[in-house]
């Protein structure tokens, strides 16, 4: 297996927000941006990450089915409802993230992955490894955040 082939996924313990650990991509000196090997690397990252999030969703559903207990003590009931509420909010954030991952995988299929949707320049390998769902280059993202900050202050 050469250094540009996606390595087998290594599961990262901890929060589901963490995506699978991976070996950073090392492009060859003359390799074109978003070559087939790079595309395969990012597709593997995105699919592994989506799989981890989906496993968390399944775990939550099973947990909620098993926790269908009616406590007579109001404090126990309130505690259980609070815990379930927090878990459901986390799953809702993950649901939105799964949608972004699916959109990124769709961009891979259409050949748009890795390019800024605003200006069309390369997003960059390291930025995509840090945020595989990125749709904007760092310059466009910085401008967007500045505009959002200005709008919030008005």
Automatic annotation (TrEMBL):
One matching Pfam family: zf-dskA_traR
GO cellular component labels: cytoplasm
Start-end of dksA C4-type zinc fingers: 116-140
First-listed, main subcellular location of the protein, grouped into a coarse class: cytoplasm
InterPro entries referenced in this protein's UniProt entry, alphabetically: DksA_N, DksA_RNA_pol-bd, DnaK_N, Znf_C4-type_bac, Znf_DskA_TraR, Znf_DskA_TraR_CS
Domain DnaK suppressor protein DksA N-terminal: 38-108
Molecular function terms from GO: DNA binding; zinc ion binding
Domain Zinc finger DksA/TraR C4-type: 111-145
Annotated binding of Zn(2+), by residue: 116, 119, 137, 140
A single GO BP: regulation of gene expression
Cellular localisation: Cytoplasm
Keywords, alphabetical: Coiled coil, Cytoplasm, DNA-binding, Metal-binding, Zinc, Zinc-finger
Stored Gene3D superfamilies: DksA, coiled-coil domain
Similarity annotation: Belongs to the DksA family.
Subunit structure as annotated in this protein's UniProt entry: Interacts directly with the RNA polymerase.
Function, in words: Transcription factor that acts by binding directly to the RNA polymerase (RNAP). Required for negative regulation of rRNA expression and positive regulation of several amino acid biosynthesis promoters.
Protein's UniProt name: RNA polymerase-binding transcription factor DksA
Organism of this sequence: Acidithiobacillus ferrivorans
Upper lineage: Bacteria, Pseudomonadati, Pseudomonadota, Acidithiobacillia, Acidithiobacillales
Name of the gene this protein is made from: dksA
